[in-house]
Amino acid sequence: MAKTRRLGMLLVLIFLVLASKGEDDFSYCESMVRKWAKSSAGNRNKADKLTLKDFLFFLHVPRTGGRTYYSCFLKKLYANTDECPRSYDKLRFDPRETNCRLLATHDDYSVMSKLPKDKTSMITILRNPIDRVFSTYEFSVEVAARFLVHPNLTSATQMSKNMKSRSRGVSTLDIWPWKYLVPWMREDLFTRRDARKHTEVRSIKGKQNPYDMHEFVMPLHTFVDDPMAHEIIHNGATFQLAGLTNNSFLTEAPKIRRCIRRHPNLDHYVLEVAKGRLDHMLYIGLTEDHKESATIFANMVGSQVLSQSAALSSLGEEVTSNKTGTNSFQDPEDGGENQDQRSTGDNTLGEDAPSSDAETTDENMTVENLMEAYETCTSTLRKSQYKRRTISLRKIAPAYFSKEARLQVPQTVIQKMLLLNSLDVDLYKHAQQLFMEQAKHLMQIGQPKSEPQNKYRLFEMETQEARYNLSMTWKVLSLISTTLLFVFVGVFVTTKRRNSKIKV
Ligand SMILES: *[C@@H]1O[C@H](CO)[C@@H](O)[C@H](O)[C@H]1NC(C)=O
Ligand SMILES: *[C@@H]1O[C@H](CO)[C@@H](O)[C@H](O)[C@H]1NC(C)=O
Ligand SMILES: *[C@@H]1O[C@H](CO)[C@@H](O)[C@H](O)[C@H]1NC(C)=O
Ligand SMILES: *[C@@H]1O[C@H](CO)[C@@H](O)[C@H](O)[C@H]1NC(C)=O
What we know:
Blueprint: H1 2-41, E1 55-59, H2 66-77, E2 102-105, E3 120-126, H3 129-145, H4 153-166, H5 178-198, H6 220-225, H7 227-232, H8 236-242, H9 253-262, H10 267-279, E4 283-286, H11 290-314, E5 336-337, E6 351-352, H12 367-394, H13 403-406, H14 411-420, H15 422-444, H16 461-503
Parallel strand pairs: 1-2, 1-3, 3-4
Antiparallel strand pairs: 5-6
Helix pairs in contact: 1-10, 2-11, 2-12, 3-5, 8-10, 10-15, 11-12, 11-15, 15-16
The structure holds 2-acetamido-2-deoxy-beta-D-glucopyranose (4 copies).
Residues 362-364 line the site of one 2-acetamido-2-deoxy-beta-D-glucopyranose.
Region (Disordered): 317-364
InterPro entries: Heparan_SO4-6-sulfoTrfase (IPR010635), P-loop_NTPase (IPR027417)
Transmembrane segments: 472-493
C-alpha cells in the first residue's frame, strides 16, 4: 500500500516537473523570440528609404519572377564586375572584399550581417502565397522531371554530379531551396516510375486533375503536407524577410525556428519583423501586377542606378561592363529556375537565365530604353521557358500543369495552403498597401516620364483602390476572428488547466 502511494507520488512529481518544464520552455522561447524581434526591429528612419544607396540588395523570394528582374533589369543596369559573387558559399562570402554594388540572392535577410547596412538599399518582389506554393510545386516537378531521361536514379544523380564538377557555374541544384526540393522530388519521380513498371496503371480518360495523379507525380496535397514543405516553403516569404529560413546566417535561427514551431502563437513576432523590413524597402514589386511593378521599378530604381553609374564614371571609375567577368549565372543542368508562364497563364516571368543574359550595360541607357530592353528581354525569356517547361512536363504525361488545371484542385487543399501560409497572406496584404503608396508617390513626383502613347502607363488607380479597400475590410474581419480565436483558446486553456489541476 505504501509502495503504491510512493509510486503515485513519484508519478505526480514527474508530472509536475514535466509540466513546469513545459511552462519554462514557453517563457524561455517567448523571451528569446521577443529579444530577437526587438533587436531586429531596427531604428533606421524611413525618410530616406527612397534614395538609392551605394549598395543594392535584391532579396529574391523564390517563385516570384525575380529572375526576370535579375536578367532583364539588373543585368542591364549593372556591369558584371559590379555584382557580388553569389553567396551560395556562405563561408567564403564577403562582399566587403570586392568592389561590388549589387547582390541578388535567394539568401534571406540575415545576409545583411555581411553588408554595409547603412549604405544598403533593399528591394524585393512578393507574390500571392497560394500561387507561390503552386509555382514551387510545379517548378520542383519540372526540374526534377528533366532527369527522367536517365534509366535510373543512380545514373541521374551521378550525371548531375559530373555536370557540377565540370562546370564552374552555379546550378539550380546548388541554390537554396532547390538544392533540397529538386533531389527530393527527383527521387520521388523515379520511385513512381519504377512502381508503374510493376503495376497496371489505370487508364486516364477525360478531365483529370493533374495535381492528383499519384501514379506519375507526387500529388499537390501530399507535397503541401510534407515536412519538407513545412520546413522551407510555407510562410517562406515571411521567414526570408525575417532572416529565419533554414538557410539563415544567424546562429540562433535554428533555435528560434524550433521555438516558433513548438509555440505557433509566437509567430506574430516574425510577421512584425518581416513587415518592418518591407517598410524600409527602396522598392517592392508584386508578381501579380508585373507591368505596373516593372514601370515603378524603372522609374524609382532604374533611374537612380543610372544616375549613380553616371556619377561614378564621371569620377573616373570603371563602370562599363567587363564581358569576361566571373559572375555570369550558368546553369549547366537546367538553366536555372523556369517559371510557369503561358501554360499556367501566369503574369509572371521565369526565373530562368539563358546564357545570353550577360549583356553589357549601355552607356546611353535611359529609363525609356530600359523599359524597352526589359520588354524584349522578358518576351525572349518567356518563350524559352515555355519551351523548356513543355519538354520537361512531357516526361510525366499525362500530368500537365496549367492555370486552368489549377481550378480542379479541391477547395479543401486550397484552404489548407492558406492556413499553412497565413503569415505570408498577411505579409502580402501589407505589401499591397506599400505598393499602392509607391505608385502614389511616383505619380506625385510627376513620374513616370510617360508620353501619352506610353503603354507602360500606371494602372488605373480606382480599381486598385477598390482592391485595397476590400483587403482592408478583410483585414478588419480577420482581426476580429483572430481575437475571437484567442479568447476561445484562452478560455479553453484555462478550463483545461483547471480540469487537470482537479485531477491532480
Ligand atoms: C542504372 O543505369 C545504368 C546505366 O544504364 C546501369 O549501368 C546501371 O547498372 C543501372 N543501375 C541500377 C541499380 O539499375
Ligand atoms: C534545411 O532543410 C532541409 C530539408 O528539410 C534539410 O535537409 C537541411 O539540412 C536543412 N538545413 C539546415 C541548415 O538546417
Ligand atoms: C575584365 O576581367 C578580366 C578577368 O576577370 C580581367 O583580367 C580584366 O582586367 C578585366 N578588365 C577590365 C577592363 O576590368
Ligand atoms: C551615346 O550618345 C552619344 C551622344 O549622344 C553618341 O555619340 C553615342 O554614339 C551613343 N552611344 C551609344 C552606344 O549609343
